[in-house]
Amino acid sequence: MGQRGCWPALPSAATASSASARPPPRRVEAVGPHPLARYNRQKISRSRAVQPDDYQLFMQEMSGVKPITSDQIPPSSPLPHPSEAQLARREAAMREDGHEPDGLTMEAVEMLRPSDPVGFKRDGVQEGVYKKLRLGKYELQASLDLHQHTLREARVALLQFIRDCLERDIRSVLILHGKGERSQPQALLKSYVSAWLPHIPEVMAMHSAERRHGGSGALYVLLRKSDRKKAENRERHLRRLA
After folding, report:
1. Where is the composition biased (Low complexity) (predicted)?
2. Contact, 210 vs 218, CB < 8 A?
3. What domains appear along the chain, each with residue ranges and CATH number?
4. Is the distance from CB of 179 to CB of 113 less than 8 angstroms?
5. In what order do the strands lie in the sheet with 172-176?
6. Which helix (H) or strand (E) holds 6?
7. What is the pLDDT of residues 147-176, one digit of tens each?
8. How far apart are CA 30 and CA 115, in angstroms?
9. 55 burial level (CB within 10 Å; 0-12, 13-18, 19+)
10. How far, in Å, CA of 114 to CA of 92, rounded?
């Protein structure tokens, strides 16, 4: 921030005549950085090992994914909606990569109410693990905000988000779908997201969030370990046995 009262000193009598021949200096209004730009610079300054080009590439890959640093979810500005051509390209890419599971229907699903709690866990997920997830005891490593998304946009964003999280060994995430109290029909996006997640093999469990994280308008989601992390754990276990 600029210092108060820091205006140019008045010219002395000896220099007044020469100064009058020059045009007066223009006052330049200070323009503050965009919050995201300031956030990016702060992150870079803390991690000197990250090169700017690498950081920009990472931020592009993680578009829509926000690390959570507190128990409160800050409001986010809506991003520009992708065009039909962009959505079609993303959907085609996911089909080619095998990242589009069956069951993520765009047809009718069971409709929920805005206040309905949602829960799901796969066989093999321990009750203690599920309880910690329900109570918001796990550190939230990333979040995806689906507010203002159409169903088609939300479907693409959700699949891309989960794929990105797996590649980065992120397991505990928050998905904000909103309660949908003003949508027609109510809870439209909430109903579809809740129906989609159990059909994604990488999702081990999910549950409506605690009030501090969005309540019935958000979901805690536990993802499976990545293949790389599983291999590391097996190797670590074998070293202990050796």
Report:
1. 8-21
2. no
3. 82-101+108-232 (3.30.1370.110)
4. no
5. 65-66, 142-145, 172-176, 218-223, 203-208, 119-121
6. none
7. 999 999 999 999 999 999 999 999 999 999
8. 46
9. middle
10. 32
Average pLDDT over residues 119-130: 96
Distance separating alpha carbons of residues 43 and 54, to the nearest angstrom: 13
Strands 142-145 and 119-121: unpaired
As given in the structure block, the two tokens for residue 60 are 């592009």
Tell me the pairing of strands 172-176 and 142-145. Answer: parallel
Token reading at 153: 């946009």
Q: Phi/psi of residue 183, each to 5°? A: -80, 160
Residue at token pair 């693409």:
156
Per residue in 178-229, pLDDT tens?
A: 999 999 999 999 999 999 999 999 999 999 999 999 999 999 999 998 777 6
